[in-house]
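User: I'm putting together a teaching handout on how sequence relates to shape, and I'd like one worked example. Could you take Response regulator transcription factor from Deinococcus taklimakanensis, show the sequence you're using, and then write out its predicted structure as tokens right after it?

Assistant: Happy to. First the sequence, then the structure tokens directly below it.
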Amino acid sequence: MSHVVVIEDEGTVRDVLRFHLERAGLKVTALDSTHGGLEALSGADALVLDWMLPGESGLSFLRRLRADHDLRRMPVLMLTARAAEAERVEGLESGADDYLTKPFSAAELVARVRALLRRTQPDTPQTLSNGPLTVDVAAAEARMQGKRLNLTRREFDLLAFLTQHAGRVYSRTELLDRVWGADFLGGERTVDQHVTQLRAHLGDDPSKPGFLETVRGKGYRMRAWAEGV
């Protein structure tokens, strides 16, 4: 599930943005100012940013964002009531990827956000490999040293996600959002149980994992095979 951050100071507009983006199947974090904005964008996939904000303007925040080494490639859709061509050009030249003038339709908003996500997120490869582990996404099948693993659907989804993002640490909450979805009502213990089950399937020793590593205080990651075991 893609994660979109919305920064919009008008409460009604912010609620409308959240409603339509969540209805489109996206996870949304909504803020009323740029305070804490860079922190909120860590792990996000796109930003919907209003031009006119209290305190720091959206344009100023965008410039800071583009100067941040880790977040400079974040796709940004700028929202504004400014319709003049010169102002649209200023927004784009400051680093916005797209521009939407208020008022706008929900359909156009969702279409533009999805277009940004398609351009910036590569398609999931159909076959993922990590050493002796192979995950066939299209067939929903995983093999270890050529032997098929008998996984449940959710075990497979978790394994595929972590394999695709090998080397990156994900918290339990992030894994619940990305793999189980925002509507899932279970707790973080569910992630622990599935990791334990996957380790059994993979023949992974929790004390010296070759694949699924527990990162204390942070969560889990799939070790990239190049790191060694």
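A couple of points you could highlight for students: The first strand starts at residue 3 and ends at 7. Residues 106-120 form the longest helix (15 residues).
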